[in-house]
Amino acid sequence: MKFRVNFHEDWKVITVLIGGSDLCDYCTDSNLYSAANFFEHLRNALDILHREVPRALVNLVDFMSPIAMRQVFLGNPDKCPVQQASILCNCVLTPRESSQELARLEAVTRAYQSSMRELLESGRYDTQEDFSVVLQPFFHNIQLPVLAYTYVSLFFPNQFEPLGRKTDTLDLAVDIPLSCPPQNDSFLRTSQNSNYTYPTKPAIENWGSDFLCTEWNPSNSVPTSDILKKFNAHILGFSTGTQEEMAGLNVAVEGARARDMPAQARDLVERMKNSPEINLEQDWKLITLFIGSNDLCHYCENPEAYSEEEYVQHIQQALDILYELPRAFVNVVEVMELASLYQGQGGKCDMSLAALSNCTCLRRSQDNSLEMQELKKVNWNFQSGITRFSYQHQYLQREDFTVVVQPFFQNTLVPLSDRGDADLTFFSEDCFHFSERGHAEMAIALWNNMLEPVGQKTTSNNFTHSRTKLKCPSPESPYLYTLRNSQLLQDQAEAGPMVIFWAVPVAAGGGLAVGVGTMMAWRAIRGRQRENPPINLNTMGF
């Protein structure tokens, strides 16, 4: 074949159909077959085609839902070899209806499909006129016949349908005619010749009417997706997704430990220094550092390397690097109480999966054992060890830089369901990372902590999944609290309050995940400043 193809002149149609086999094996290794790995492998393959193959149209076919496959096999056991098929696709065919395993499979399926759409909508493959990747969605909603099967190819006409109007439903029980494309539109469709623009990703949440800070409610014409945008719609730097292209200034790395924080801090500083969108001297930055769970998970392997002293020293080094930044507010979030997540769960946490293999100390420890007691002690030492950063003299020398420890994780209260069991919907299947719902709760807790004076901060989290618990900045105190404006400096009793305060921007989103080393920055457009009053919400915005 290669002798018949003029590689540089001939046009090629390439079809990629993948995902079903990965889902069949997902339950055997959720790390290997994770949505993140699926995205990365698919991206690498498409990158090779994009880089090396001229004149190519790549069809990325949305794979058939495994739930549809279940319906065929389980609904017709007499004709379908369920037992043999279960060996080949154990993770799809063996879970019971309404089981946690099946719900997890459906969630991973959606994550796979979302990854495919994110990859195409990023515009990564729209940089050349002779190369295009098009999603063909005819498998997206498929109805398979149980008692009969009618073969029909919807793939061919799907290629001729404009983007935005492609058929995404296929019922194989009915007779679907194979129609030809109209003569005046007889070409394969891409985003360019369909005059199609990929839709922007919708906001995850709209905090408008149910955000009770009425004096600062946003305009209905500006849909805001997180709390920060309530106060300044021009912030940037936050991550907009879980993939590398959407990371922004989020330099977090999965599995990071305290020893990785100096390198992450240096990476963050260099990114901001080199960004043409950031005025390093004038723009205000909000940075959140959250680390420690992975250190606890490996403490028992090497107590000296993961001691409190080493933990604090690594964070200190990171803060010293961040001190290079002008106009910066640094949140240091205390590590959560890890042991309570694993006690009294009745085996509902899937301890055989990735979290346990990566959390040696929890695997070795049993409830109320000496090892678990030691882990709790180290956990507490980590928390108490970083408390002093809010009072560190070296970070009080500048009026445009501060470090504040936020302690809402200090006492972890596992939420309960209506039946009185642990409500694991706040956590992923490994009981180690938060779910999307859990992330939202942590964002609210961080927001509330930042609006509380140092020394009076909430040290636990209230899992109620309600935004009514969001605290509001008051007209008397429209700022983030620091040691200085909390009136805790010794010289303030005589000298009176300093004139500089911190505006009220806050982190509502990405990166608040257990086990993920978090170092994020939100850069903001500098607001207009009045001549005399303190810098507050009305005079400055992130």
TrEMBL record:
A GO cellular-component term linked to this record: brush border membrane
Record-level GO BP terms: phospholipid metabolic process
SUPFAM superfamilies listed in its UniProt record: SGNH hydrolase
Pfam families the UniProt entry points to: Lipase_GDSL
Highest taxon, organism lineage: Eukaryota
InterPro entries: GDSL (IPR001087), Phospholipase_B (IPR035547), PLB1 (IPR038885), SGNH_hydro_sf (IPR036514)
Record keyword Transmembrane present: yes
Alphabetical list of Gene3D superfamilies matching this protein: SGNH hydrolase
Molecular-function annotations in GO: phosphatidylcholine lysophospholipase activity; phospholipase A2 activity; retinyl-palmitate esterase activity
Keywords of this entry: Membrane, Transmembrane, Transmembrane helix
Listed CDD domains: Phospholipase_B_like
Spans through the membrane: 499-522
PANTHER family: GH22081P-RELATED, PHOSPHOLIPASE B, PLB1
Name under which the protein is recorded: Phospholipase B1, membrane-associated
Species lineage: Eukaryota, Metazoa, Chordata, Craniata, Vertebrata
